[in-house]
Design a protein that fits this description.
Chains A, B: Keywords: Cytoplasm, Gluconeogenesis, Glycolysis, Isomerase. The structure is a homodimer of 455-residue chains. Chain A contains 16 helices and twelve strands. The first copy, chain A, is globular and about 60 Å long.
Chain lengths: 455, 455
């Protein structure tokens, strides 16, 4: 199991949360949140909790069948998706493929490219370097109305059509709602292979659905191990608060938020986990950044996630974290063991200032820096905790992802909000439609023009 | 010139700063800050302001000579550096090279790889895919004592030695202090080519020194244009406050900081500018995150930068920015014109929900989303401003980088702090030495052991 180390409470009492005391004060509330989530999930039919069922792997057979049919016939996969439709796959491939997978002469899986923006220079640039005959496109949108994704889809489809003719239909896979939306009928009309996004799974909770599993599987990743790890997190989540690191870490987050710390830094010490920070930032921000309407009043809640990577950002952010305002909780992710066990070479004898590094594992230096930074931040009154994983493999990463989703869901319960919707993004969408001249949005367009906002 | 649009003050008065009023209140203070910086710079000998002199391009001849000597003989460049020694080069190559430069069959410059961590799996992974006979290594460290960089240097040197023998000496370039530190004598002993980091230029202000210029030049970027743009920002900086967008934007940042907004989101609408966010985050955090000791009291100052990319992070962060706490100032960067002018293809007639996109430029959609998001955030009481650049080329990027460095320097003056040092990172370094068993740090090691912190 992952090891949640509440460094904060163990050391430097003055800045520390007394976790044992807090647990005894809040165990009932934590177990109430846990019970609420588990009861709703087990009762079935909850509109939001489908992600708790994903570790069972209902879609696994379809994903593996598609992989087995396609593997060997294609070199490149373009994933079209934005937000939750890309960050999961990006996290998995960056963490679990060879760090320079795309440059390997012989690869155990496809190269996976993510188009997650409407940057025409980047989209055209990618199509310029790929061979259309050897490229698959996976378009991912639950509704099919995601503007950014569907624009890129039109470009990729036109490119395939121009290069391979009617065969393009065999090279596009649509991952979308099993019934609703416009991408499903479009895919069926065109004859694309399809995979489902369960209606009860939101984008930021979809990494272990076909959304994340297909790109991972085509990229050569052991997706069964991912799910096995996630199931372990689900088992852990059933424990009582005293033995439940998901509940405990959610409580730490919650209490520091209540103390007014409005920033949550997420800082894995691993270059391979750099996109885990992006994935977590979406999960945390979109789930918990809410205008809570309760009891006749409203409150704007949610801490702002800051993405970081150790050791790299020690040379970018730690000056601020040490000396700047005490407005942060820092979450470290530690990797106990590197895959290769690479050693730092011995320095020449006269390079005496480097001698102390010689013949020590890189991972020892990495974790020395993590411990040193955690301590230095505590010394400056900046609390932090560490989640350790034994190594970066599919099983432990699957466990960590499910751990963090469960932690976020519990944090939502503690805040008394719905952690699974995102009503705040609607206005931006509507205004974009208005500015782009979509029929039906004349009123909003007139309003923007009156404010002097035009393209 | 770049166009600083204080959207905030033009629209939606209720949440807006009255820029004209604020300017007349603060013009004297702004011009005092401007004068202080310019006077210190012009007087010469200031220990921190060497970056204001970099646009003159004193090192340009040496950089171009090195490029001309090496170009064509090598395919890959590994840059070893962390923080300010990598983020500038990374920003330049990501923005200005072809978006998939490393996959092009024929390239106008080398592939540039940045090693900015002690992740042994990544370092070994990179060396596995490169051809040592065709690879240069640029080791960048002002002092030569940057642990992370020097560890990676030992690995790269050992790899080159094993593969090409004594020729390795011609394949390593050291960018370091012209006199001091341990890398300079090491490089001279080994016979490496060297370039200087002026002693008066800190890492986060070094992008237009040899630190950023050499990787850019070897990557095929027009470094003369970069400097030309930076000189334009220097000229602009001399204007009076009423016509000086650097001073005005620094004032906006400062006033919102004073109002208690402790988060600065930096959000270019461009995938190619994604590392500009990382570069800016370091510049802002390390310069302004300070424990100010003045007049017998102390104050922890500095807002926390949050890296974002539009449109991508609309699907990750905007829910929080719209509905969560009103604790943010958002800085957008808008690109007026894309390089390729790519169009979104027409949809099939029956794909009616996508028809409105057909035949419109991607960049129109990109900027519609920026305007829509800026407006939607203002509607939610989250102020923002936009910096526009006509296009992403070397000249405008050089101008933007110098603009942001000047803005940060002015913000430091307004906060009454030294924006150019980083005393807060020292403890973490010392504790790392202690944990790694470096001689001379026994006392700290004993202290850590007493606290239960060991590896």
């Amino acid at each position: 199991m992952l090891n949640f180390q509440n460094i904060t409470s163990e050391r430097l009492g003055s800045h520390a949360l007394d976790l044992e005391g807090a647990l005894s004060d809040h165990a009932a509330r934590l177990e109430q949140a846990q019970g609420a989530l588990l009861d709703r999930f087990r009762a079935g039919g909850d509109p939001y909790l489908g992600w708790m069922d994903l570790p069972r792997g209902e879609v696994l057979g379809d994903v593996l069948a598609l992989r087995d049919r396609l593997a060997g016939h294609y070199d490149d996969l373009i994933v079209l998706g934005i937000g939750g439709s890309s960050l999961g796959g990006l996290t998995l491939t960056t963490a679990l493929q060879h760090p320079f997978h795309n440059s390997l002469a012989s690869r155990p899986g496809m190269r996976v490219h993510f188009i997650d923006n409407v940057d025409g220079d980047v989209i055209e640039g990618l199509l310029e370097v790929l061979d259309a005959r050897r490229t698959l496109v996976n378009v991912i949108s639950k509704s099919g109305t995601t503007t950014e994704t569907m624009a890129a889809y039109l470009s990729c489809k036109a490119w395939l059509q121009a290069q391979v003719g009617e065969k393009y239909k065999a090279q596009i896979i649509a991952t979308t709602d099993p019934q609703k939306g416009i991408l499903r009928p479009l895919a069926e009309r065109e004859g694309y292979a399809t995979l489902p996004v369960p209606p009860t799974v939101g984008g930021r909770f979809s990494v272990l659905s076909a959304v994340g599993l297909l790109p991972a599987a085509l990229g050569g990743i052991d997706v069964e191990a991912l799910l096995r790890g996630a199931r372990r997190a689900m088992e852990h989540f059933e424990r009582s608060a005293a033995h439940n690191e998901i509940l405990q870490s959610a409580l730490v987050q919650h209490l520091y938020g209540e103390q007014g710390k409005n920033i949550t830094v997420f800082m894995p010490y691993s270059t391979r986990l750099r996109f885990l920070s992006d994935w977590y930032a979406q999960l945390w921000a979109e789930s918990l950044g809410k205008n809570r309407q309760r009891d006749g009043g409203s409150a704007r809640v949610g801490t702002t996630p800051v993405k970081a990577v150790g050791t790299t950002d020690q040379h970018s952010q730690v000056q601020l974290y040490r000396e700047g305002p005490q407005d942060k909780l820092v979450v470290f992710v530690k990797v106990e063991q590197a895959d290769r066990g690479a050693l730092i070479p011995n320095a020449e004898p006269d390079e005496n200032e480097m001698n102390y590094l010689g013949n020590k594992p890189y991972q020892t230096l990495m974790n020395a820096e993590l411990h040193a930074t955690a301590y230095a931040l505590l010394d400056a009154g900046q609390p932090n905790y560490t989640i350790s994983l034994p190594r970066i493999d599919a099983e432990h990463l699957g466990e960590l992802l499910q751990f963090l989703m469960l932690q976020t869901a519990v944090a939502g319960e503690l805040l008394n909000i719905n952690a699974f919707d995102q009503p705040g993004v609607e206005l931006g969408k509507v205004l974009t439609y208005a500015l782009m001249g979509r029929p039906g949005f004349d009123e909003q367009r007139a309003q923007l023009e009156a404010e002097g906002i035009t393209l």
